[in-house]
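The following block was generated as part of the benchmark described in Methods. Ligand: zinc ion.
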Amino acid sequence: MCLAGVLMLALWGCNSSEPPATVATQKDAALVPKTHSGSYPIRVVCTTGMVGDLVRHTGGEHVQVHVLMGPGVDPHLYKARPNDLRLLQQADLVFYSGLHLEGRLAEVLESLSRQGRRVYAVTSALTAEDLLGDGGQFDPHVWFDVRLWHKCLGLVREVLAQYDPAHRESYQAQAERYGAKLLALDEWMRNQLAQIPKTQRVLVTAHDAFRYFGRAYEIEVYGIQGISTESEASLREIDALVQMLVARRIKAIFVESSVNPRHVQAVVESCRRQGHEIRIGGELFSDALGEFRPDVPEEENPGTYIGMMRHNVRTIVEALR
Ligand SMILES: [Zn+2]
């Protein structure tokens, strides 16, 4: 990697809570080849399906992407399996989401980075102003704001172009194509969500994953699990949540594919006890993609980022409008 590239990536790194060690330093860069010198396809390992989609679309035929966390897998709790370590060691490039999404895998990724491996957090493309958080900890669920995810695509494009300059133009063109699809998705989501009356734009889900979604698309969001796993005061917050749902006659709340639904069910029952018939509006994909279906187009395929976002928005709009 050229010095300018190292500096640029290091600069991106400074703006997030990621340790600067997530990008190769000048000293480490001597340990790995400056640019791709092996055979094709370039071997890339990604943590989540959402990150995998960024790399697959940008890299096209020049990359082979392996995603560690499949459908229904909770990245906050995921631990590396022995086979993962082998894959990570052998990869030419590793991309992860970052901001401590991969809680238990972070140590492994940081240690690879210290060994001079090429390991990149896609969210290091974001600035402090882009991010939400409290107590010095940033919220990692940035893919729920499509425009932020579009910025992360830019980092993937730059890393691939610098690592494999022979195909720079191809990476730029493919990232631009996928980027246009992402911006169209963002527009579609805004139009769809506008169908929900303003007073009914309340999204209650199993855990606190939708804050970026709420900020970007003007919906109030509440995560039950984020509240209930804590103290006594949190039980009061759940009670306050139930009172709000009853008072505003909110029609539905939602379960998530990677989180246990029992807390959501409990809120539904509390509302019913107070005479408000609320229902479970469906299952949302939050921290993992759905099952990839090879015969289904991307827009309808829950195993892709675009398909997953469209599924979520359709489910939310149908239940709340
Ligand atoms: Zn989460």
